[in-house]
């Protein structure tokens, strides 16, 4: 806009001056009537994120002597262009969580900033092309970047999750980051005892050291939570522990003391396996071992000597005395014949 001067002649001839500013300069365009049209020229690119407004002073000076001048303030507001993408504070966010974390628990929070203004600087968060298994376990808040659990975590099923997140501003510019969540083990599994094979009944004359049963003891927890010790409360049997596949234990149930079917026809064994967690978890298994009879008992008469007095004229065929003998064995081993 041109300045106006009510004088005439040389007193109204105007020149213009612009206060020094590195971003703007003043150009004077001559008109046919001899006046000059001031034009404000942009000399360098603007960056609203560095400076969002400028205050300029334009001075118009007439040709009189002494000269008179007038000034005007020019305020330039720089409007935003979506020239800045969101920027995450980290390229990789890491978290360590326990597997028994309740649903809805906060795992971590990501944050991205955008130097633009208004909608161009408003950031929303979302998953970046993740499989359904991730979205079934975790959720991201689009407004604040909080990642929370939505399903139960299981260390034994998977102990590490790595997935991508994106931050998108209102103008469509996108930034990406990685999230790594490590799941720590909790002692949430008791040892499991499986009987792989069982030789029952066991002959009562079986030698000490005879293998009676082959067992498998497994605890899917890790570290001390998965370290198992076994105990057996019967003096006739003991456990010889062998290493199995995948860290399992393969205890062998062996005969530790000679059996006697006449004392016990079977043994009810209770095997207990405890892990090293705090508190410890215990698994039990009941094993019934029968004892097979051996012919290790001779018949025993009810008396060592029988004395009978009979008259000399007793008829032939008369019963003089009945003797009895018993045998502690069973079946044919305990069937007694007399001669």
Structural key phrases:
calcium; four-stranded antiparallel sheet; 24 strands; Immunoglobulin-like; Cadherin_CS; Cadherin-like_dom; 339 residues; repeat; PCDGF protein; four-stranded mixed sheet; 4 domains
Commentary on this structure:
The chain has one helix at 132-135, and strands at residues 14-18, 24-30, 36-42, 53-62, 69-77, 87-88, 92-98, 106-109, 112-113, 123-127, 138-140, 146-149, 160-169, 174-184, 192-198, 202-203, 211-218, 228-232, 237-240, 252-255, 266-275, 282-292, 300-301, 325-326. By secondary structure, the chain is an all-beta fold. It has 4 domains: 10-77, Sandwich (Immunoglobulin-like); 87-184, Cadherins (Immunoglobulin-like), CATH 2.60.40.60; 192-292, Cadherins (Immunoglobulin-like); 296-338, Immunoglobulin-like, CATH 2.60.40.60. The strands form 8 sheets. The chain has a 4-stranded mixed beta sheet with strand order 7-14-13-10, with no helix packed on it. Strands 15-17-20-19 form a 4-stranded antiparallel beta sheet, with no helix packed on it. A 4-stranded mixed beta sheet has the order 16-22-21-18, with no helix packed on it. The relative contact order is 0.10. GO terms for molecular function: calcium ion binding. Keywords: Calcium, Cell adhesion, Cell membrane, Glycoprotein, Membrane, Repeat, Signal, Transmembrane, Transmembrane helix. Its main location: membrane. This is PCDGF protein.
List the helices and strands and how they pair.
Blueprint: E1 14-18, E2 24-30, E3 36-42, E4 53-62, E5 69-77, E6 87-88, E7 92-98, E8 106-109, E9 112-113, E10 123-127, H1 132-135, E11 138-140, E12 146-149, E13 160-169, E14 174-184, E15 192-198, E16 202-203, E17 211-218, E18 228-232, E19 237-240, E20 252-255, E21 266-275, E22 282-292, E23 300-301, E24 325-326
Parallel strand pairs: 7-14, 16-22
Antiparallel strand pairs: 1-4, 2-3, 4-5, 6-9, 8-12, 10-13, 11-12, 13-14, 15-17, 17-20, 18-21, 19-20, 21-22, 23-24
């Amino acid at each position: 806009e041109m300045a106006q001067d009510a004088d005439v002649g040389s007193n109204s001839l105007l020149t213009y001056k612009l206060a020094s500013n590195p971003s703007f300069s003043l150009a004077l365009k001559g008109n046919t009537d001899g006046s000059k049209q001031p034009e404000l020229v942009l000399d360098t690119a603007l960056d609203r994120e560095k400076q969002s407004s400028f205050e300029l002073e334009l001075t118009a000076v007439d040709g009189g002597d002494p000269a008179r001048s007038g000034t005007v303030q020019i305020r330039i507001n720089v409007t935003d262009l979506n020239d800045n993408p969101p920027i995450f504070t980290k390229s990789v966010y890491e978290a360590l969580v326990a597997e028994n974390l309740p649903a809805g628990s906060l795992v971590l929070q990501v944050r991205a900033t955008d130097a633009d203004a208004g909608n161009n600087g408003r950031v929303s968060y979302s998953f970046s092309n993740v499989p359904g298994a991730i979205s079934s376990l975790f959720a991201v808040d689009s407004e604040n970047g909080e990642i929370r659990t939505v399903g139960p975590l299981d260390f034994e099923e998977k102990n590490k999750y790595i997935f991508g997140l994106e931050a998108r501003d209102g103008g469509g510019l996108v930034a990406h980051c990685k999230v790594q969540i490590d799941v720590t083990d909790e002692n949430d599994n008791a040892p499991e005892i499986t009987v792989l094979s069982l030789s029952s009944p066991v002959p009562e004359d079986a030698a000490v050291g005879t293998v009676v049963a082959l067992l498998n003891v497994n605890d899917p927890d890790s570290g001390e939570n998965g370290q198992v010790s076994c105990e057996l409360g019967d003096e006739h049997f003991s456990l010889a522990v062998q290493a199995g596949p995948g860290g399992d234990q393969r205890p062998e149930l062996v005969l530790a003391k000679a059996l006697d079917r006449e004392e016990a026809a079977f043994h009810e064994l209770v095997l207990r396996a405890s892990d090293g967690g705090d508190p410890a978890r215990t698994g039990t298994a009941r094993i019934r071992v029968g004892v097979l009879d051996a012919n290790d008992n001779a018949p025993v008469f009810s008396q060592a000597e029988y004395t009978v007095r009979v008259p000399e004229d007793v008829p032939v065929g008369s019963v003089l005395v009945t003797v009895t003998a018993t045998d502690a064995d069973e079946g044919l081993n305990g069937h007694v014949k007399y001669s």
